[in-house]
């Protein structure tokens, strides 16, 4: 087969580029702890009552001697519960693990402008952990079409200083 | 001759097309590139200002709030919701009177609804837009909305007094907070 | 003598496919215009926000599924017939796949447009990805299934021609136009396994009420089994044009026959096992399989980069034939006054830009920043919306005269059209990408929220909205120009024996340098299946092991 020498050079260059892209992603994974959602657990979307999602909200847990928080969120047509009626309140600089699932149709859970972004799929539990670095409010957007009022589905996360974090809002 | 003319006019057209059709896109992309680099290098930590001003401070009414709070005949909003199905968008409003007063003399009427699209739904005496006789101390009304629209403000009037001449009327403007929108599972 | 006179039967088939394609393009494009104004709140008087999703479904289905499929069918009929020098083997068979696809398309369209009729129970506002548990009318799914079956028959038709030709020409290499057609269709057979399983196996029985529950992740995964390869099903015919015809339009010859074949082989192998890159944000698929899909996706950069080289090299050769000199000065010698060339060239440039945003999409963890934001439609309006659509429009200026025996009319308007498209698309797509970085979601009627504002990295939201609306308007004008030129030329173009120069010269590095193994379709098809099994067998098994419809969710009308 005849491959022009410029073309050979170009193909080599292409492989370098591809390797660079893959390395970037791996670097993000390993060095910056930028992970994607994986296979956590399945759940019966028609019976969330008997699971932690039956009582959605923020919980305090202790892991390795550290106080952390877990947030169970149900996405429903057309609201985040919690998130829409009242903001999800979490303290700054603390590990927060989200568990998101949907009892009805597909939704998205996207903290606007950040990389906290997951699908909420009936039957699947999405789990991801983060640390909010600054005190501020974030908007949550449903970014998967979920029905005629999809565009009104929004919520809020309120990151507060540790001293102002109100534990009376926690759920058991 | 003719051929030449059309040739030169085509050339001129191509020149204009290249300037507009390629020049503007290149300009737009260069500006984007410049701004991206600019932000990355010179404004790495933007101050957290202006972020608090994202919501207007006028707090709207929601479920659990009281209407005519300064009157002796205050009423509570116990239901405020938009129910959505594939066919229609329906606004639901439920009111409860707070105190037991001489209820037989009280009428409450929603005069109009202002919608997000700035459309106005007017009230009309003969339809369900009227809350009459809060005898069991509760009233409930539904309105079919234009598909996709949501009320942002209500005008509500309260009438007191049985006889027409002694009617005592108060109107209140009720800006609404974000109304819960839910799927209507009927 | 042009195509029409040599192969009147095939010309009729190709023209029929083009008519359907252009009607779909007109309606889908109109919907796109309404959406661009509605979403940006420039004008919301055409429809209400509930109906927006019906239009959005129509836009996606009519353009991404119908316009493309029918145009590709017409293009392949032209190429196979011409390069094998045979009319279709059996016209009854040929017309039956055409009519099957058309009936299917009408069913799906009626189901979608039913959503605009008040109180209609025939609805399909499920978007072109139709994720359950949102449920459309059964007619929608059945229509799609018919289009799919029709497309399989079309592929069979071309293989039939090829086998007959092979019997007469046992020692010839597969002509390049037919080679590209057959490999595209092989890829189509591999990837549509997923769609067929989803639509016929799950969604039709479910929409008819034979089963009540459905597991949302399984059909979603099967959709993306098909859903990324389908973009190559759109793209490869554009490559087909760039490889086979664009060099000629720029005055030169294809640079390398063997590279062309290698590229199509790689696409056959790697197009399907990449589907999880649409599911990076999904729970229920392990990170390892997502990683495998990412590596495969990024490897697919290779054939596209080779294409870039070959196409640019062919164009440079053409420009030098036309007297071009220097390192870059030759670019000025390209035929910038030929609508067909300009459209293809712009499509290629936009594809390079779209490729770069595609690399962000493909990079797993970086993707999460823009997943399901308006960045994504910004990306695919560059790829399918320009690289594919603009190529198809441009090559129509060259093909239509061959199919109708009439010269192109309104050449000035035809020349303005691709420039306008390039301008409009740059404006629209640039703003969509930037808005996506701020988190503005895709697929929404009103991207305005009461509780918070988006914070763009630079610029303002208002400025981006206007840029999208203006870009969309320019695109609509460009589309109208295209349709006007097509209709006018078709009905009133000057009749001619040779309405266009349709000669395609031989490649610079010809087929005699191409290894024979590249033409071994059985080998590559088997390998493609093996790669798909590696990617999909285990995750799919995990999903169905607990019951095909479990964990089950109840349907919701759309």
Describe this structure in words.
The complex is a heterotrimer of chains A (172), B (186) and C (558). The longest helix of chain A is centred in the N-terminal third of the chain and has 27 residues, at 5-31. Chain A has 2 domains: 1-34; 41-169, Cupredoxins -  blue copper proteins (Immunoglobulin-like, Sandwich), CATH 2.60.40. Chain A has 1 helix and 11 strands; from the N terminus they run αβββββββββββ. Chain A has 172 residues and is an alpha+beta fold. With 186 residues, chain B is of the alpha+beta class. Chain B has 2 domains: 1-42; 66-183, Immunoglobulin-like, CATH 2.60.40. Helices cover 22% and strands 35% of the residues of chain B. Chain B has 1 helix and 10 strands. In chain B, the strands form 2 sheets. In chain B, strands 1, 2, 3, 7 and 10 form a 5-stranded mixed beta sheet that branches. In chain B, β1 and β2 (75-84) form a beta hairpin. With 558 residues, chain C is mainly α. Helices cover 67% and strands 1% of the residues of chain C. Chain C has a two-stranded parallel sheet. Chain C contains 18 helices and 2 strands. Classes of the chains: A alpha+beta (172), B alpha+beta (186), C mainly alpha (558). Chains in contact: A-B, A-C, B-C.
Give descriptors for this structure.
heterotrimer; B: 186 residues; alpha+beta; Immunoglobulin-like; 2 domains; 5-stranded mixed beta sheet; 5-stranded antiparallel beta sheet; 1 helix; 35% strand; elongated; C: 558 residues; mainly alpha; two-stranded parallel sheet; 67% helix
């Amino acid at each position: 087969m005849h491959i022009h020498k410029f073309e050979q050079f170009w193909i080599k260059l292409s492989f370098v580029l591809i390797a660079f892209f893959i390395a970037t992603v791996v670097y993000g994974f390993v060095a910056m702890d930028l992970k994607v959602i994986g296979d956590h657990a399945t759940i019966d979307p028609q019976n969330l009552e008997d699971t932690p999602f039956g009582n959605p909200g923020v919980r305090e847990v202790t892991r390795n001697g550290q106080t952390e928080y877990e947030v169970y969120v149900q996405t429903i047509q057309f609201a985040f519960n919690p998130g829409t009626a009242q903001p999800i309140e979490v303290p700054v600089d603390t590990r927060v693990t989200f568990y998101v699932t949907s009892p009805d149709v597909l939704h998205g859970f996207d903290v606007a402008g950040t990389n906290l972004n997951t699908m909420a799929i009936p039957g699947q539990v999405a789990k991801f952990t983060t640390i909010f670095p600054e005190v501020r409010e974030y908007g949550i957007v449903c970014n998967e079409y979920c029905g005629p009022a999809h565009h009104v589905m929004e919520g809020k996360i309120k990151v507060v200083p540790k001293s102002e974090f109100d534990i009376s809002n926690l759920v058991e | 001759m003719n051929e030449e003319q059309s040739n030169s006019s085509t050339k001129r057209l191509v020149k204009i097309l290249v300037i507009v059709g390629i020049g503007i896109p290149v300009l737009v992309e260069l500006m984007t590139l410049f701004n991206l680099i600019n932000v990355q290098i010179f404004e790495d930590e933007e101050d957290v200002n202006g972020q608090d001003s994202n919501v207007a401070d006028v707090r709207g009414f929601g479920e659990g709030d009281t209407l005519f709070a300064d009157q002796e005949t205050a009423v509570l909003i116990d239901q405020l919701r938009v129910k959505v199905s594939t066919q229609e968008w329906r606004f639901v409003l439920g009111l409860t009177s707070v105190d037991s007063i001489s209820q037989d003399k009280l009428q409450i009427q929603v005069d109009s609804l202002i919608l997000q699209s700035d459309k106005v739904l007017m009230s009309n005496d003969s339809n369900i837009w009227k809350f009459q006789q809060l005898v069991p101390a509760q009233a409930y009304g539904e309105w079919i909305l234009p598909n996709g629209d949501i009320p942002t403000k209500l005008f509500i009037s309260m009438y007191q007094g049985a006889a027409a001449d002694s009617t005592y009327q108060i109107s209140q403007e009720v800006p609404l907070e974000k109304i819960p929108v839910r799927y209507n599972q009927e | 003598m042009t195509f029409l006179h040599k192969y009147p039967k095939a010309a009729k088939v190709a023209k029929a496919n083009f008519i359907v394609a252009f009607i779909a393009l007109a309606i889908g494009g109109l919907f796109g215009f309404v959406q661009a104004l509605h979403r940006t709140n420039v004008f919301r008087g055409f429809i209400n926000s509930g109906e927006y999703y019906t239009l959005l479904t129509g836009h996606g289905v009519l353009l991404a599924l119908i316009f493309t499929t029918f145009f590709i069918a017409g293009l392949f009929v032209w190429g196979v017939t011409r390069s094998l020098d045979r009319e279709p083997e059996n016209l009854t068979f040929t017309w039956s796949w055409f009519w099957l696809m058309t009936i299917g398309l009408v069913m799906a369209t009626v189901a979608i447009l039913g959503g605009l009729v008040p109180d209609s129970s025939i609805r399909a506002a499920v978007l072109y990805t139709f994720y359950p548990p949102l449920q459309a009318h059964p007619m929608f799914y059945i229509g799609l299934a018919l289009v799919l079956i029709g497309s399989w028959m079309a592929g069979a038709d071309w293989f039939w021609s090829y086998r007959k030709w092979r019997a007469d020409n046992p020692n010839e290499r597969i002509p390049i136009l037919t080679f590209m057609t057959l490999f595209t269709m092989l890829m189509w057979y591999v990837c549509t396994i997923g769609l067929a399983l989803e639509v016929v196996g799950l969604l039709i029985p479910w929409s008819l009420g034979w089963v009540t529950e459905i597991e949302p992740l399984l059909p979603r995964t099967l959709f993306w089994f098909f859903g990324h390869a389908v973009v190559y099903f759109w793209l490869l015919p554009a490559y087909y044009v760039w490889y086979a015809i664009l060099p000629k339009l720029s005055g030169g010859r294809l640079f390398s026959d063997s590279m062309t074949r290698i590229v199509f082989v790689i696409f056959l192998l790697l197009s399907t096992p990449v589907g999880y890159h649409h599911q990076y944000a999904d729970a229920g698929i392990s990170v390892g399989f997502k990683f495998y899909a990412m590596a495969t996706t990024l490897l697919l950069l290779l054939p596209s980069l080779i294409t870039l080289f070959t196409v640019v090299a062919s164009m440079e050769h053409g420009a030098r034939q036309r007297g071009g000199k220097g390192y870059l000065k030759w670019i000025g010698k390209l035929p910038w006054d030929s609508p067909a060339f300009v459209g293809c060239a712009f499509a290629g440039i936009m594809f390079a830009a779209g490729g770069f945003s595609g690399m962000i999409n493909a990079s797993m963890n970086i993707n999460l920043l823009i997943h399901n934001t308006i960045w994504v439609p910004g990306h695919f309006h560059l790829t399918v919306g320009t690289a594919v659509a603009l190529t198809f429009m441009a090559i129509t200026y060259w093909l239509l005269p061959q199919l109708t025996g009439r010269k192109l009319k309104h050449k000035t308007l035809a020349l303005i059209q691709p420039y306008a498209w390039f301008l409009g698309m740059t404006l629209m797509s640039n703003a969509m990408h930037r808005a996506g970085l701020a988190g503005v979601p895709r697929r929404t009627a009103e991207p305005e929220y009461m509780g918070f504002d988006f914070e763009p990295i630079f610029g303002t939201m208002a400025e981006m909205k206007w840029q999208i609306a203006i870009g969309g308007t320019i695109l609509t004008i460009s589309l109208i120009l295209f349709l006007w030129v097509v209709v006018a030329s078709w009905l009133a173009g000057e009749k001619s024996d040779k309405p266009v120069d349709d000669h395609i010269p031989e490649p610079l590095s010809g087929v005699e340098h191409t290894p024979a193994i590249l033409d071994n379709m059985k080998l590559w098809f088997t390998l493609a299946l093996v790669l798909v099994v590696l990617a999909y067998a285990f995750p799919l098994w995990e999903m169905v092991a607990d019951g095909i419809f479990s964990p089950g969710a109840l349907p919701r009308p759309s």
